[in-house]
Amino acid sequence: MTYELAIGDKTYSSWSLRGWLLFAKFDFDVRVHNARMYTDEFTKLIAEFAPTKLVPAAKLDGAVLWDSLAIAEELNQRHPDANMWPSDSSARAYARSMTAEMHSGFAPLREACTMNLRKCYPDFKPSKQVLADVARIDELWTHARREFGANGPWLFGEYSIADVFYAPIATRFASYNLPQSETAAAYINTHLADQKFRMWRAMGIAQNYIQPGYDLDLPSVEWPGPKPLLAKPVETGTPENSHCPYSGDPVTHFLEIDGRVFGFCNAFCRDKTVADPEAWTNFIKIYQT
To answer: Do residues 15 and 63 both lie within one domain?
Structure first.
């Protein structure tokens, strides 16, 4: 199988996050093509996945799909053993329904609270329309967790396509300090602490694509997810490893944690690790040795 995926900015593109999670969380090998939104590079990338005009887009053994729900259903059909939907028929029906509602609804929330994984606005004031969307989402999450979530922390216990689709919404609750029940808060924190999500966010920080118009003119506080280990890039040092934990190539770039120096093969490998060292299994193996 040959799978390819086209995505945009990791910090701001909620649909790109959904597309990436469909492959990352279910362990499907995929070659990811990434381009910064609103650039000629992005236009060129999209042209390679014609006839799509948006991301995510995928090529599955050469067949082009666009729209995250279409990609999800095709992957589910190709990989029935991956259990991308709940196995119980009642749970599966609810999961499909709430995913479809997410896919087509909640326009006020989407428009007022764009995904922004760099910011947290404690003083954001949601409109009545946004609060109505928030209440409905909390209702959906609470019902799923109460009725179907006994065997794990996700909506239906184990991770499913429904969680993929609500991941960017969980980040919006966090970024804009939206009202949330105890059940919703626990579910949001599950997303923020998830290793794959932390990898995605760290890569976005390392890319450092700051898009005009996405940041609000409001005070911002520290991101509410798990506090990462304090790391910083350094120009020189004697690293504890001679080869990059990701590529295996000789090290050329360095970071420091608590006086210890580690090496990487390029600036991006270093910077994504600086952003959240514990998100990266291969690095933590070296760090803990």
So the answer is: yes
